[in-house]
Design goal:
With 127 residues, the protein is mainly beta. Helix content is 0%, strand content 45%. It has no helices and eleven strands. It is globular. It starts with a strand and ends with a strand.
Length: 127
C-alpha cells in the first residue's frame, strides 16, 4: 500500500494557475499508473487525468484537456498536475491515486480501479 501525500492546493483567482504535487517515500512509482481525481460535495470522484508508469502515455478528461498537464518524476517518486486557466468549476478536493501495473498505458481513470489514494488537497477558484 502506497502512502501518497498531495500538496499545492489553495485559493486562486479565475484564470490563475496552480501546480499540485503527489509524493510517496515508501516505494518506487516505477510500476504504477498514476491519476488525479477531483471531488465536489455531493458528487463522486471525477477522473481528470492519468499517466502511464514511465510517463509515455497520458489521458485527459474533456473538462481539463488543454488546461491541465500531468507529469511525473520517478526518480523523485513524484507526480504533478499543472493547472492553468482555472475556472470556478475546477473547485474541489483533488486526490492523487495509483495502481500497480505492467502495462504502459493511460486511460480514463475510474476510481474503483485505483487502490492507493492520498488524503486530498483543496483547490478553490474564486474571485
Amino acid at each position: 500500500q502506497l502512502e501518497l501525500v498531495e500538496s499545492g492546493g489553495g485559493l486562486v483567482q479565475p484564470g490563475g494557475s496552480l501546480t499540485l504535487s503527489c509524493v510517496t517515500s515508501e516505494e518506487s512509482l516505477n510500476h504504477y499508473t498514476m491519476a488525479w481525481f477531483r471531488q465536489v460535495p455531493g458528487k463522486g470522484r471525477e477522473g481528470l487525468s492519468s499517466i502511464s508508469p514511465r510517463g509515455v502515455n497520458t489521458y485527459y478528461a474533456d473538462s481539463v484537456k488543454g488546461r491541465f498537464t500531468i507529469s511525473r518524476d520517478n526518480a523523485e517518486n513524484t507526480v504533478y498536475l499543472q493547472m492553468n486557466s482555472l475556472i470556478p468549476e475546477d473547485t474541489g478536493v483533488y486526490y492523487c491515486a495509483g495502481v500497480w501495473t505492467l502495462i504502459e498505458d493511460a486511460t480514463a481513470p475510474l476510481s474503483y480501479e485505483y487502490d492507493n489514494w492520498g488524503q486530498g488537497t483543496q483547490v478553490t477558484v474564486s474571485s
